[in-house]
Design brief:
This protein is α/β, with parallel strands linked by helices. The chain has a domain at 6-89 and 146-196 and 286-342: 3-Layer(bba) Sandwich (FAD/NAD(P)-binding domain), CATH 3.50.50.60. Helix content is 31%, strand content 23%. The strands form three sheets. An eight-stranded mixed beta sheet has the order 5-6-4-11-12-13-10-14, with helices on both faces. The chain has a six-stranded mixed beta sheet with strand order 8-2-1-9-16-15, sandwiched between helices. The longest helix has 24 residues, at 59-82. The relative contact order is 0.20. Bound molecules: flavin-adenine dinucleotide (FAD). Flavin-adenine dinucleotide binds at residues 9-15, 32-35, 39-42, 44, 46-48, 181-183, 185, 204, 206, 226, 238-239, 280, 282-283, 305, 307-313.
Length: 343
């Protein structure tokens, strides 16, 4: 049997992306997940790769920006290797502007983007430019935001890994360098026996509509809702944010209220059929930032967790710094993401 260089526990977006980056660089990789790929929060439908606002810059925002820029090459590479679409597309994002105060703020952020988002812009535009959304007045348009389809992306990563000879198994031995990318289960395990929680889960519910003809539109962020047209003629809408919940996977009246709200706000969805409803639990570390580096409880092993609401947007950057660490022992992880910040 071939020697394994890297074992990754967890086949969500973090684990699969790290595994792919290691395999792409020539490592022999084994991914272990008892539930199979995409069983956790990465198996959903929403897939906004959206930046934080361009102001009050910090290490987390800078890392996210770099990850979003790197995402195109990363996901196109997965597609080229697998022959499977990830649903990736940098179509931008539209956000309605509510009034004069919001307009002033949007203009200031446009100036911020000029300084902070090299090569990308945040600007004020007439809503008519995006007529199919049925909005009026002015909107913010940014050309950094992208979309991908989480389920398709997971399938593409699995195919790319298998094509590169990686093992993806439900049970197996850990060999070589070991990285734990186990989502909310990993955060809960790290909280056990500690005075303070290391991290926890935040449930989200989302819906998928069937609407043809919107696939080339930028996604819409309206009244806290993400509305994401996918390449396949579906439109995803998310998400609720629930700190307490009984069943991590069920959908309920909170989602039905969200569906009613988006139908009232977004004309093309008013009559469109809902073809899927999905719930998952986001891994939120106590720092609310990704947690990357040496595993606090397993000497010599590593952790990649805490994707919270931006795990897909961070995936390309997380894969790069974790592969640097796992394969070359080179640590370029921002201090904000060190596991010690959650202890
Ligand atoms: C409704 C909703 C909408 C979202 N929308 C977006 C969005 O638009 N954009 C965005 O960037 N992010 C979004 N997110 C967040 C994103 O889904 C998460 O940040 C991301 O999925 C986290 O990935 P992960 O790989 O860390 O965890 P997970 O996907 O949860 O994967 C962890 C895996 O580890 C496995 N596992 C657990 N224990 C073990 C063990 N002991 N050994 C081996 N494997 C184990 C699990 O089976 C699971 O498959 C959304 C989340 C939700 C719930």
């Amino acid at each position: 049997m071939a020697r394994i260089d890297v074992t990754v526990r967890g086949a969500g977006i973090f684990g699969l992306s790290i595994a792919w980056e290691c395999a792409r660089r020539g490592a022999a990789v084994r991914v272990i997940d008892p539930e199979g790929p995409g069983a956790g929060s990465s198996g959903g439908i929403v897939g906004a790769l959206a930046p934080h606002v361009p102001e009050q810059w910090n290490g987390k925002k800078a890392f996210q920006f770099e990850s979003l820029v790197a995402a195109e090459t990363f996901f196109r590479g997965v597609e080229a290797a697998s022959g499977v679409s990830t649903g990736y597309g940098r179509k931008g994002r539209v956000q309605p502007i509510a009034g004069p105060e919001a307009l002033k703020l949007a203009e200031a952020r446009g100036e911020g983007a000029k300084a902070l988002w090299q090569g990308y812009s945040w600007r004020i535009e007439a809503a008519e430019r995006f007529a199919s959304w049925g909005l009026s007045g002015s909107v913010i348009f940014d050309d950094l935001t992208a979309r991908m389809h989480p389920r398709h992306c997971g399938a593409a990563l699995v195919a790319a890994l298998q094509g590169a000879g990686a093992e993806i198994v439900r049970d197996g031995a850990e060999e070589g360098r070991v990285c734990h990318a186990t989502g909310v289960a990993g955060l809960q395990a790290l909280s056990e026996g500690r005075a303070r929680s290391f991290g926890s889960g935040v449930k989200g519910q989302s819906a998928l509509f069937r609407v043809e003809g919107l696939a080339e539109l930028p996604q819409l962020f309206i009244e806290t809702l993400h509305v994401i047209p996918h390449a396949d003629g579906t439109v995803a809408v998310g998400s609720t944010s629930e700190n307490s919940y009984d069943d991590p996977r069920s959908t309920d009246a909170q989602l039905e209220a969200m569906i009613e709200k988006v139908r009232a706000l977004v004309p093309p969805l008013a009559e469109a059929p809902v073809i899927d409803r999905w719930a998952g639990v986001r891994p939120r570390a106590r720092s609310r930032a990704p947690v990357l580096g040496a595993h606090p409880d397993r000497p010599g092993e590593f952790i990649a967790n805490g994707g919270f609401k931006i795990g897909f947007g961070m995936a390309a950057g997380v894969a790069r710094v974790m592969a640097d660490l796992l394969l070359d022992g080179v640590d370029t992880i921002p201090p904000e993401f060190r596991p010690e910040t959650c202890l």
